[in-house]
Amino acid sequence: MTELSTAPGLSTAPGAPAPPVSRAPGGIPTEVFRKQLAEFSAARGELLAADRWESQDPPVRELLGAAGAAGLFRAAWAVDEADRPRALWHAVELHTAFARLGNGAPGAPLLTHLDVATRLLATLPAAPAGLVERALDGRTTAALAVTEPGGAGSDLASLTTAVRRDKDTLTVTGEKWFISNAPYADHLLVLADDPEAVTGSRTGPALLLLEATAPGVARETLDTSGHTGLTGRIRLDAAPVHTVLAPGGHGLLRLMRHWIHERVMVAVRMTELASAVVDHAAEAAHHRRTFGSALIANQQVRFRLADLSAQVLETRAAVHHGIRLLAEGGCPMAYAAVCKYRAAELLRTAADEALQLSGADGYRTGHPAQRALRDGLGLALAGGTDELMLLQIDRG
Amino acid sequence: MTELSTAPGLSTAPGAPAPPVSRAPGGIPTEVFRKQLAEFSAARGELLAADRWESQDPPVRELLGAAGAAGLFRAAWAVDEADRPRALWHAVELHTAFARLGNGAPGAPLLTHLDVATRLLATLPAAPAGLVERALDGRTTAALAVTEPGGAGSDLASLTTAVRRDKDTLTVTGEKWFISNAPYADHLLVLADDPEAVTGSRTGPALLLLEATAPGVARETLDTSGHTGLTGRIRLDAAPVHTVLAPGGHGLLRLMRHWIHERVMVAVRMTELASAVVDHAAEAAHHRRTFGSALIANQQVRFRLADLSAQVLETRAAVHHGIRLLAEGGCPMAYAAVCKYRAAELLRTAADEALQLSGADGYRTGHPAQRALRDGLGLALAGGTDELMLLQIDRG
Amino acid sequence: MTATLTTTARAGWFTEAEDRLREELTEHFARQVEPHIPAWESAGEIPLRDILTALGERGMLGLRFPVERGGAGHSAWSHVVLAECLGELSSDSVGMSVTVHNDMVAPMIAEAGGPEAVERHLRPALTGRHLLAHAVSEPGAGSDVAAVATTAVPVDGGYRVSGTKQWVIAGMYADAYAVLARLPEAKPPFGYVLLMVPRSAEGVTVGPADPTLGMRAAGVAGSVRLDEVFVPQSDRLGGHGLGLVTQLRQFEPERIVSACRALAIAARLLRDTRARLAERSTFGESVGSRQEIVFRLARLEADIAAARQLAYTGIDRWVAGGDHRTVSAAVKLRSSRLTRRVARECLHLYGAQGQLTEEGVNRAFRDARLFSISTGSDEMMLTALARLNGWADD
Amino acid sequence: MTATLTTTARAGWFTEAEDRLREELTEHFARQVEPHIPAWESAGEIPLRDILTALGERGMLGLRFPVERGGAGHSAWSHVVLAECLGELSSDSVGMSVTVHNDMVAPMIAEAGGPEAVERHLRPALTGRHLLAHAVSEPGAGSDVAAVATTAVPVDGGYRVSGTKQWVIAGMYADAYAVLARLPEAKPPFGYVLLMVPRSAEGVTVGPADPTLGMRAAGVAGSVRLDEVFVPQSDRLGGHGLGLVTQLRQFEPERIVSACRALAIAARLLRDTRARLAERSTFGESVGSRQEIVFRLARLEADIAAARQLAYTGIDRWVAGGDHRTVSAAVKLRSSRLTRRVARECLHLYGAQGQLTEEGVNRAFRDARLFSISTGSDEMMLTALARLNGWADD
């Protein structure tokens, strides 16, 4: 099932008239990193145990710290423009590997850390010096706070969180929820309306950096069915702004560009989660016995697994093309939406089918398909709903 | 597969404390009529041969004449209000039987004749005396001409066909297409706009009776992929109106009521067509051999057939409830829409799957599933598109 | 579902007396049960005994059983009314637990139990004071009921039963279990016995289950261990050797009743979602009025309306003594898949809010996923349908 | 598909030379082929020889074959360009017939034919003057290729072939057939021969097929009867006894190329439907701007975009000499089902107009239905995928 995850070898096909050069995405050697990832997971098994990630207090900071210390983030980070393809394909390896660790759960905060918060910060010249470096070392982390209660995730024009001037300081008031990694963040990247143009010369959404421990900041962990313990609510009551990352009217534009990257990476993660549960279901079908024979002896089971495996291959091909486009600096919004939408659809289907193939065992918390089903619901919302993706595809 | 088509027997279940009285729809004895239908199909095999109905000139008039002479229409016709349940369940028997004759094709003009044209005429006090009687004897038939080129079938507010006064006579000008039985009709029931209130005191759609052979009436058979040879285009160039069946502003209302009946009956037909192709596919799967064994030996084939058979049972139950509601004079628009929508969905699915299960043989013209697939596309439009049905369901 | 379509769907199937029963049950549940559900779900436990006792006091348990066995002598339609009212509750831990008691275990005693079993288990059960659960599943046996390893060895005056049952819904709450066990000489379909085993019997040990996706307050027992438990002959349901037959026969009507509850859940979710979307707006427009959502909900409504007719047809067949096996399998399959789809689509339409565990739609999504797995999985139903249609196995 | 997404989907996969080839082919087809399609379809016949000759003259046939065998020495990507341009045509009778000639039969000669077979069949085929078809299916054998009953008896200097092939696409147009036959001692996968049989050979009788749902101008031969036909050894493709192996190996890349054509058809249908809906309005609103339709089309676009990447991945594997079997089966399955779904949805969106046989969308619906049935049915692909994944059969 992993056969598309690396570039094919360049062997010579007999009789092929053209030189056998692969044009497939990838082709960046990642074997060393893959080995490094395997060593990390072997060494830090206790951090990656699935049951620790079913609690309301999963070891997010420990994981980020350990991963940073092991150099996993830096391996997936571009030192300059030319380094971008290497970094992106290493990030793919990272998310691919973590989709199979701890029922895929530890991969969630890791992606939020690397590909949401840190990567967004790195695109913002106003970000405080050293913040990205510390994040890459896994010493600090930030959360991107956009979604608000009541509004649909995609309707950012109706922000109620707002920044205002209070004497010499800028303060933010409002509420954000379903913020990934919020319970564990040192910093908050808050999208807030600036109705009085206090952050710049224009009104409209601004992007602001707040310290998570600042006065007026209250956080709580949400009891969500997926992403257990990883998602938070943030209440801001005249909380002081640390840095204006993007002034009023510019906040959304920054996010739009960022979301292309985020959506493709989330799509990588969803695809690999799906792949993991399909592989698990196939493996289990060899062992689970009903009516005197192994489940896999049922033609309908093999057909369902075969169908799912084809969907995994297809989505992976689509998503890897997205990575290639990102690497070349030219992934259109619509294509990122294709990746995100298709991967969400795949994960929904694969998790639900894999659960069904596992019978009562699949209904048990701790079963990979069950976890993927729950997490998949949240991932489908991350970075924009299906409907928003479809609208972006329609726009071309 | 036909087990729901008749009312269950009233045998006593051991231990059942309440008297075992069936509350299911039906319960009207139709055995005599069923025998009559079997005799008709045995006697008139030449009229019902599938290949005759693949031509552009199927024997519609002969069939209607023969069916009328054999009393099939009168058997499904209510002589008074109290007779309605009997007549409706006989109509169900009629459409159920014809769904299995001649690849289901001969049932199409028969339904149009009985349950569209004749039944609509019977509800219109202005209809010329004797017309309904002659239709029931199969001596004449009418076609209901509503749909126009260019407009969506469901947008009747934008009629371009119009009735006007030309000295002493009313004439109609415009174009209608996809009119069932139009090539074979003696009379046309035409929905036309009355912008000058020449048919009554109000403007708006009027329902008019025209003679098909009147001057200014031109008809041609459309080359459609389904309902081969049964559907026509009508061009009206100042064609004289024979009778105003419903004056301006009243035409649509008459049709709305009529459509409830039509939709439920079309749903009966679609359900039984689906049932016929599923049964045919199951039967064929016992004979068709691949890789050394009968197709039915494949678990995935059995599962797909089982799934389809469940859908047939479900849709039949829904549609029979619709007949009961009609019989009691109280079928709401929304429920008729449920029947029509579900049956259209069923027929699409069943025909496509049955074709697939038949392999290359299913691709052959003359294969029941292939015919049902083509006819099903047209039936899904008859009496209103899926989308119109969904809007009516939404309105409750 | 719109109220009109629901009323239309029921026309002709229910008597006025049953409509009154529905009103009473609806009012009772709305006042006595639904308000407590958030707290119960939060605690992971429901007061099943109180719930059943309240129903028993109102004479709403076992309505279809003969008067001489403690019932009210009504028809199965009264149980459909209860099933549909249970589906209106926002916790299927309640719905499923009551169903296990009243529509899975009680019927086997009413139909196959001797006078002593009726006195000991059925009559007190119908007062709601004696709680029944069904210990049928076993590790490794899955949906293959005939593969039970639990053994009943005939001894003087009864049987000695040993084995382990798992996934017993309401097993933590129950006072007695219906247990299927094989005789030493079992040869399917014969050679099994179905026994009522009191939880208090010597050798019975009950342990809680690991957490599950849904049904978190259903008191699921992870294991019911039976260690040389003596069961008197008078607590056997059905003949010696006929336990599997008695059990399998019970599954058929039970599945139709379950389907009625499933479809009521689906209809409720659709109604609630519709109401919520009508309130919610994005980009300045009511979400519920968007065409895509209108069509989406209407499709589900049509599917529910159709499946309901299949369920009622099945009930009617059963009541009227006809062959209801095919309809039973068909409606179980259709309703399980549909309810699962409705729950998933509704959850989606709730957006981020739907991610919260405490949200009704989230719980419904998690609870309803069980239908396709338990009391006859989708695959079991497809297999049954193929067999009933005469399509031979490999 | 929107133009942007199509361009995006191709980025990185095609060279500039291939882009130019696409432009040339697009222009050629738009001028020389597409305008005639309505008339050809109406007549039920296409001038396949003229179509192929025009392509041959422009050097567009057999581009990927080695120069020494009459090809241009380009890569398979040039055949993908042709396949995608064929998918742009509103008649798949044209697309399929050209594909059979250039991508199903010609490759077997190019790869497994001896020098004489190349001279006799391949070189003239690449000029477009010698038309090739594939006589593989037999009554009763269906997709089970190994079950052919046609027999080749070795005789002095060649074989005597007897049997009947059916459903030969472009069989009425062809000058020679690739025929799979079993040797008297056949034992799968060995004991078969693959032979080029000229239509003019003594003992060959070709008859037209019964009408079919689509492909009505594809010159489908209902039967190709071979009665003691002598075929010289030099017209054998692959070794004696290795015919089935040669054939099966050819299916794998061929299916990826077919998938490329299928996906191009799907993309074209979507583009045409989008354009039509933009013009059409009901209730005073452009139909294409309705949200439900926007979502519906966008879902299909996403599916096509994704499937294209799988197809390109497969082509790339093949070109680069990697294992492409799994991708081949996967993309054949996905693209066949998708194209069928796209055609059905587009047909639906055309409303009554779409019912007319002459409408492009109607023809496409009827033509495209064949993908799931021929050149590897969906069920064959699922079976292959399961095997390739190591999931054992019964």
From TrEMBL, chains A, B:
Domain Acyl-CoA oxidase/dehydrogenase middle: 143-236
Cofactors named for this entry: FAD
InterPro entries according to UniProt: Acyl-CoA_dehydrogenase (IPR050741), Acyl-CoA_Oxase/DH_mid-dom (IPR006091), Acyl-CoA_Oxase/DH_mid-dom_sf (IPR046373), AcylCo_DH-like_C (IPR036250), AcylCo_DH/oxidase_C (IPR009075), AcylCoA_DH/oxidase_NM_dom_sf (IPR009100)
Pfam family, one: Acyl-CoA_dh_M
Residue stretches making up the Acyl-CoA dehydrogenase/oxidase C-terminal domain: 249-395
Swiss-Prot/TrEMBL keywords: FAD, Flavoprotein, Oxidoreductase
UniProt-annotated stretches for the region Disordered: 1-28
Family label: Belongs to the acyl-CoA dehydrogenase family.
Protein name as it appears in the record: Acyl-CoA dehydrogenase
UniProt organism field: Streptomyces polyasparticus
From TrEMBL, chains C, D:
Provenance organism: Streptomyces polyasparticus
Keywords annotated in UniProt: FAD, Flavoprotein, Oxidoreductase
Keyword Flavoprotein: yes
Residue span, Acyl-CoA dehydrogenase/oxidase C-terminal domain: 243-387
Protein name, as recorded: Acyl-CoA dehydrogenase family protein
Family as reported in the entry's similarity comment: Belongs to the acyl-CoA dehydrogenase family.
PANTHER family, sorted: ACYL-COA DEHYDROGENASE 6, MEDIUM-CHAIN SPECIFIC ACYL-COA DEHYDROGENASE, MITOCHONDRIAL-RELATED
Cofactor names: FAD
Lineage: Bacteria, Bacillati, Actinomycetota, Actinomycetes, Kitasatosporales
Domain spans labelled Acyl-CoA oxidase/dehydrogenase middle: 134-228
Domain Acyl-CoA dehydrogenase/oxidase N-terminal: 15-128
